[in-house]
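Minutes, project check-in
Item: structure for the 182-residue chain
Input as provided by the requester:
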Amino acid sequence: MKEYGILTGKVLGILASGFVLALSKDKKQRFQLHQECDRLWHTIDRKQLYHVLRRLQLNGFMKTIKRADDVEGFQLSEEGKKRWLKYQLRNLKLKKSKRWDRKWRIVLFDIPELKKKIRDALRRKLKNLGFLEFQKSVFIYPFPCGDEVNFVINFFNIEDSVFYLEAPISPDYNFRRHFNLK
């Protein structure tokens, strides 16, 4: 079952990148299409691919495009784009550098009570990514993560309420100990 999740992620990723996944009913055309996408096709089992495509289409995450040359193409629907973003958020991970540059990445936010669910979801995600909760609305991480934090901020649509800083902190002994830094 997990394999379908990975495959679904690959298919959603291809469709999200703007590529129209095309499948032909004609074996000769299908062979040509498969050659064009050789790298991808080697990693995907055909039966699983067709199963995933049908499931995505039945759930409304993908729409079919019929071309004049009897080739069926698939594109993400608006729901599919939302699903892809959720998939990316769920699988988001922060990288750890071998050397620490002695700067702390600090996420500060002031999200109103009206958006309490979003605020709590942001807290959970930051903790899940490995941030240390310094205060209820201040989280700290030692390695570069600006792109990932921006993705999370944009996903929750809270750009006006969240700040990302890179700065030294002194004293930082407890933080260094928490992250096993020297």
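Outcome recorded: Residues 104-178 form a domain with the Alpha-Beta Plaits fold (CATH 3.30.70.240).
No further action items on this chain.
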